[in-house]
Amino acid sequence: MAKIWFLEDVNVFGILCPHKLKRYKKKHHFNHYQKQAYIYFQKDEANKVYLIEKGKVKLGYYGEDGEEIIKAILTKGEMFGEKAILGQETHTEFAQSIDHHTTICPVPVRTIQELMRDNHPFSLKIYKFLGLRIKKLERRLELLLFKDTKTRVKEFLKELEDEYGYCCPKTGDTIIKHPYTQKDIASLIGTSRPTLNIIMNELKSDKFIDFNRNEIRIKIE
Questions:
Q1: For position 123, what pLDDT does the model report?
Q2: Euclidean distance between CA atoms 121 and 151, whole angstroms
Q3: How far apart are CA 203 and CA 150, in angstroms?
Q4: In the predicted model, is pLDDT for residue 161 greater than 80?
Q5: Any bridge partners for residue 106, and if so which?
Q6: Residue that wins the pLDDT comparison between 192 and 127
Q7: Which DSSP state fits 20?
Q8: What is the DSSP letter of 181?
Q9: DSSP string of 48-114?
Q10: How far apart are CA 139 and CA 123, in angstroms?
Q11: What is the Cα–Cα distance from 37 to 54, expressed in whole angstroms?
Q12: What is the DSSP string of 204-219?
């Protein structure tokens, strides 16, 4: 899947961020959040979409037993709160900064709607993005419900490979430089950090991957 910031070569930040548009610029400001600060809560009014200018944001919700369930962890250039475009009136998840310095560009839904109305090709790309986001979340839910932990780890590595991987010209291995911590990955695939660490080391012993703090290397078969 193409990085969300570009929406297949369309610079979403350049098009959607009101700070870059003359007719909206005077009324626009960025919001800054420290680590663990909430951008919005479940059931808050959904009247904006959000672009991440810097930092990382966690999306999730709390189950009936109070357990935190993570839906996604998003990074620079990605968009969230997008279901407001489809008419959702309140948020069904919370959004929380998980970086020490997160900068968010909030965009009123009415601004998005004006831009979509004035630019039909861009409107189609936005709807395609919404469809891809829903498909990705459905796939992750399917993995959580029906697949064992090792399979979930492998599938997540494939997602990282598609989004952040590039081929090493010397070895042919795929190198993945990604923004997630081990804690982030464990939360996203529904497991604990110790279990994730065990599985990653098993995959390393099997010569499927190699990894360190900064990168993961998918070994060529």
A1: 81
A2: 38
A3: 9
A4: yes
A5: 50
A6: 192
A7: G
A8: -
A9: EEEEEEES-EEEEEE-TTS-EEEEEEE-TT-EE-GGGGGT--B-SSEEEE-SSSEEEEEEEHHHHHH
A10: 25
A11: 14
A12: HHTTSEEE-SS-EEEP
Those residues whose C-beta lies under 8 Å from the C-beta of residue 145, and which sit 6 or more positions away, are none
What residue has token string 């990653």? 200
Give the largest CA-CA distance in the chain. Answer: 57
* Residue 181 backbone dihedrals phi, psi, to 5 degrees: -90, 170
- DSSP codes joined into one string, 150-205: HHHHHHHHHHHHHHHEEE-TTT-PEEE--S--HHHHHHHHT--HHHHHHHHHHHHH
Sign of CA dihedral 71, 76, 81, 85: negative
Taking the C-alpha atoms of residue 48 and residue 179, their distance in angstroms, rounded to an integer, is 25
Predicted confidence (pLDDT) per residue in 2-59, tens digit: 333 333 334 455 556 555 555 555 666 789 999 999 999 999 999 999 988 889 999 9
Residue 180 DSSP one-character state: -
Edge-to-edge strand list for the sheet holding 68-74: 38-40, 94-97, 57-62, 68-74
> What is the rounded CA–CA span in Å between residue 1 and residue 132?
8
Tell me the pLDDT tens digit for each residue of 170-201.
899 999 998 888 888 998 888 999 999 999 99
Alpha carbon distance 189, 142 (integer Å): 11
Quick one: tokens of 124?
């189609």
Residues 180, 74: Cα–Cα separation, whole Å: 9
Both tokens of residue 147? 């697949």
Contact (Cβ atoms closer than 8 angstroms) between residue 46 and residue 81: yes
